[in-house]
Amino acid sequence: MATSQIVLTAVMAVFLVLVAAWLSRVEEWRSYSPLGTGGVSGEAGETHREKPSGIVRWLTTVDHKDIGILYGVYSVAIFGWAGFAVLVMRFELLTPGQDLISPSFYNALMTSHGLSMLILFGTPILAAFSNYFIPLLIGADDMAFPRINAIAFWLLPPSALLVYAGFFIPAIPAAQTSWTMYAPLSLQLPSPAVDLMLLGLHLSGISVTMGAINFIATIFTERGENVSWSNLDIFSWTVLTQSGLILFAFPLLGSALIMLLLDRNFGTTFFTVDGGGPILWQHLFWFWGHPEVYILILPAMGFVSLIIPPFSGRKLFGFKFVVYSTLAIGVLSFGVWAHHMFATGIDPRLRASFMTVSLAIAVPTAVKTFNWITTMWNGNIRLTTPMLFCIGFVSNLIIGGVTGVFLASIPVDLILHDTYYVVGHFHYFLMGGTVFAVFAAIYYWFPLITGRMYQRTLAKWHFWLSNIGVNITFFAMILLGYGGMPRRYATYLPQFTSLHQITTLGAVIISVAQIIWFYNMVTSWLEGKRVPDADPWDLKESGLYTAEWAWFERKRETALADGGENSDEDS
């Protein structure tokens, strides 16, 4: 056994040396510049090479725009898996009994769906836009640390493989801890897939933290001369606040994951009944878990704050108040975690204080909502697809927020805790909120990224089916919660059958909508009609022609001067 391990180590060492030797020969990667065009810069007259082409470009790039696209492709793949997992679960729930899959596989799908959407998809898809557009919006050449930016992305694929290890390694059953990983269940499950999942989540947290440091450094140090704190765009403000939340939240989650690994493998007692106790895990987890909600929603609010004004024909109403409310949410988000724990028996005085802060955090969110509505009020509304998704975002956020206020009230929460009401509430907030804002941003910036326009009819079908599906699915879940249906169960009492079937119908509608979206994006990227100019949304007419579109105009002018890509303008 010892000899085989030594041989394996030697083989791996040789392999790593060969990889290093190959990288040293790839396009002079050590002196690679993200400029992407040949030229001379600097006092020493350093020559910058063209970007390498093909797969080498994507494996070695440190260009913030390329890395943004990599984040986006990775996130779409995770989104597809999470959607498939939830569809299988919903089809199982068409009938009260256990008909389609086993209870253990249901639990595994539920675990992977939650972790995929919250950690593996949610933060990276927002990082895709942050990477691509933050430098353009603030007038920077690139991120402050381009290579760290690339490393942060390349940590994500292996982290996802570790999280999903139990699904493609036959010898070990997939993790069944639920996405909250509560002790003592997460301590007692013997499957090595749980350990691999915890390592994968830790790796993902390292990636997110590296990205947050990079965004903070970029916004603080790389702004153009004409970009001050007073005229910094609203999206950059939300990303800056999000990055601050990440710096405080994710390292704590990483520490908790390490403690859980130590309990599982080395006999420590951080979360055992005779040690720190299972409730300690809940405190640590939710100290990350509730700020994570705002880590996911704040950049989405930035998208909406940036997109609503040009399609309303006016500037964002109360810009400073939107910024102040963003900062207020960032501060208050760390004082609400125990509202997830009202039913655990914690001191009533503590419960009351957390209830107060949980109710108070609704105020800055309401400030934003009123500002968005006021921006649209009596404006010159253009119901483009980005605008439709923004309006859908606002309406779903209101439903999610109002249902959340009820859960912040201790007497109500004690009744509705761990029912489908909670599932409906946070899905309104995250699927109807964050994901809708992401789609708004995708449609808004699609012409800038690709130089082409998507199919508008398909895009509007995507919105209407998504909005109808979201409201059917998650409103039915709220009604299930009022009826007392507990969450996380693969079977249920017959009286809940009709509402579960309605929920499944809504999930199917949402899935059809996303298939339409994916088809539209791929075909439009490959063969969509090229945009005739750098202002596809007529932003100059309203005086809201922002910095990223000015960059796009310069890019097109440079391409045309070089014999550009627009010779097939009408293709």
TrEMBL record:
Topology of this chain in the membrane: Multi-pass membrane protein
Coiled-coil ranges (or none): none
Keyword match Ion transport: no
Span of domain Cytochrome oxidase subunit I profile: 58-537
The UniProt record lists the keyword Electron transport: yes
Keywords noted in UniProt: Electron transport, Heme, Iron, Membrane, Metal-binding, Respiratory chain, Transmembrane, Transmembrane helix, Transport
Location(s) in or outside the cell: Membrane
Gene Ontology MF annotations: cytochrome-c oxidase activity; heme binding
Transmembrane segments: 6-23, 67-89, 115-138, 150-176, 196-220, 232-262, 293-309, 321-340, 352-374, 386-408, 428-449, 461-482, 502-520
Sequence similarity: Belongs to the heme-copper respiratory oxidase family.
Protein name: Cox-type terminal oxidase subunit I
